[in-house]
From TrEMBL:
A Pfam family recorded for this sequence: Aldedh
Organism: Flexivirga alba
PROSITE patterns the UniProt entry points to: ALDEHYDE_DEHYDR_GLU
Entry annotation: catalytic residues: E258
Lineage, top ranks: Bacteria, Bacillati, Actinomycetota, Actinomycetes, Micrococcales
Gene Ontology molecular function, alphabetical: oxidoreductase activity
Protein name as annotated: NAD-dependent succinate-semialdehyde dehydrogenase
Length: 485
């Protein structure tokens, strides 16, 4: 048995419902492929509408008892899960690389990042509190308490198959909510293995239920419209998020959405150019560019554009493209053929409008879904990639000369997830940070994600926050009690 097959064989391929592993209705399965080769990795259960209903029933049945559980018990479960994930870093990393494509080094980084949400919320579980005060007229007392929202539906994406799950599951467990998790059909193995870890550390039956399915809309819509569900959390595209919000309106669900992005990356004329290039590599190439936080539009001051573009292009050209499981690979494959088609189309549109390719520019021949790291200069403002998420290893550079103009251009999008800028002027740091219409801002750094910080956007990038002190609030309701004397 090869190393690859032995890792995949460690994962249970069934649905996890009510603390039991079971086949999908009728024994249906879906194929999970390796994007580096196009070959089948495994077949997992393909859940049906009835399977989804069973998962929600299990979560509902477990909710009352789980809500009454001691915060310290919930904390200890999360801490034990954190430690076991860290212990099994190599297993999780290899699974992620095989099913999603990112290089092993990046997968190990995701394990460290994703596990940290469990450690963080293990500490927050015992700090949930309300308040007690005297009414202004002195006649009564005011008391508030925090209680779990209730059964939660979680829909997670394929690009961070572990961390996007732990970022939701961690605070839900800490708050006392049960859940039904529907991972992406492209990358279910990491979530299924996480369910095994939670089972091992003693999470009670029914608290976590995992439904893998190729029929996401068909399976999840009835659950969203079911009055037993009390919250929906989704990470994914804005068009899908809008549809889910509409569906959630019927039950007036508590909703949190982490949706698309169109991140600006601004390099001012006083920036440390080498630091800006380092930041650009992180902001653009983390996760092969397949991240909602990826830098999508590069605005570089005209006085430093030539230096920045030359250094940035050289770094991009030096990256090694290949199977993420191979030694020395920097850039793995995109997730599927559709992703290749989208990125290719965006590059063709840009060059058709007069932009120039400095390096890269196309799909690598052979098996797998590989696209070479690409830098484009002279991007016109009406190009499609100036408006749409690229979700691939392509960086397109525009120039500017005026601060107020670049802020206007940076804000000229329906999205508002994250923005980045580089400068050595700390008056400008505050001025631009306040002016950018984004939920997160990176100053002189290319990565902002941190379990101790609130992650989320504004405008069409969604609402609600994950991580930080704010993250657990998404899973808690505030109850006010008026006390007569």
């Amino acid at each position: 048995m090869t190393k690859t097959s032995s890792v995949v064989e460690q994962v249970k391929k069934q649905l996890f419902i009510g603390g039991s592993w079971r086949d999908a209705e009728g024994g249906a399965t879906l194929e999970v492929d390796n994007p580096a080769t196009g070959a089948e990795l495994a077949r997992v259960a393909d859940g049906s509408v009835a399977d989804g209903a069973a998962a929600l029933a299990a979560a509902t049945e477990a909710q009352a008892e789980w809500a009454r559980s001691a915060p310290r018990d919930r904390s200890e479960i999360l801490r034990a899960a954190y430690e076991l994930i860290v212990e099994r870093t190599d297993v999780f990393a290899e699974l992620m690389t095989l099913e999603m494509g990112k290089p092993l080094a990046e997968s190990r980084g995701e394990v460290a990042y994703g596990s940290e949400f469990f450690r963080w919320f293990a500490e927050e579980a015992v700090r949930v509190s309300g308040r007690y005060s005297v009414a202004p007229n002195g006649a009564t007392r005011l008391m508030t308490m925090k209680q779990p929202v209730g059964p939660t539906l979680m829909i997670t994406p394929w690009n961070f198959p572990l961390a996007m799950g732990t970022r939701k599951i961690g605070p839900a467990i800490a708050a006392g909510c049960t859940m039904v998790v529907k991972p992406a059909a492209e990358t279910p193995l990491s979530m299924l293995y996480l369910a095994q870890v939670m089972e091992e550390v003693g999470l009670p039956a029914g608290v976590l239920n995992v439904i893998t399915t190729s029929k996401s809309g068909e399976v999840m819509e009835p659950l969203i419209r079911d009055p037993r569900s009390r919250k929906l959390t989704f990470t994914g595209s804005t068009p899908v998020g809008r549809k889910l919000i509409e569906q959630s309106a019927q039950q007036v669900l508590r909703v949190s959405m982490e949706l698309g992005g169109n991140a600006p990356f601004i390099v001012f004329d006083d920036a440390d150019i080498d630091a800006a290039v380092n930041g650009a590599m992180l902001a653009k190439m983390r996760n092969i560019g397949e991240a909602c936080t990826a830098a999508n539009r590069f605005f570089v001051h005209a006085d430093v554009a030539a230096e920045f573009s030359e250094k940035f292009a050289a770094r991009m050209a030096s990256l090694t493209v290949g199977d993420g499981m191979a030694e020395g690979v920097d850039v793995g494959p995109l997730i599927n053929a559709k992703a290749i088609e989208k990125v290719t189309g965006l590059v063709a549109d840009a060059t058709g409008r007069g932009a120039q390719i400095v390096t890269g520019g196309g799909k690598r021949e052979g098996a797998g879904f590989f696209f070479t790291p690409t830098v484009i200069t002279g991007l016109p403002g009406d190009a499609a990639m100036a408006r749409e998420e690229i979700f691939g290893p392509v960086a397109a550079i525009q120039t500017f000369t005026d601060e107020s103009d670049v802020i206007r251009r940076a804000n000229d999008t329906e999205f508002g997830l994250v923005g980045y800028f580089f400068t050595r002027d700390y008056a400008r740091v505050l001025r631009v940070s306040e002016a950018l219409e984004y939920g997160m801002v990176g100053v002189n750094q290319g990565v902002v994600s941190n379990p101790a910080a609130p992650f989320g956007g504004v405008k069409a990038s969604g609402f609600g926050r994950e991580g930080g002190f704010e993250g657990i609030e998404e899973y808690l309701e505030t109850k006010y009690v008026g006390l007569a004397l």
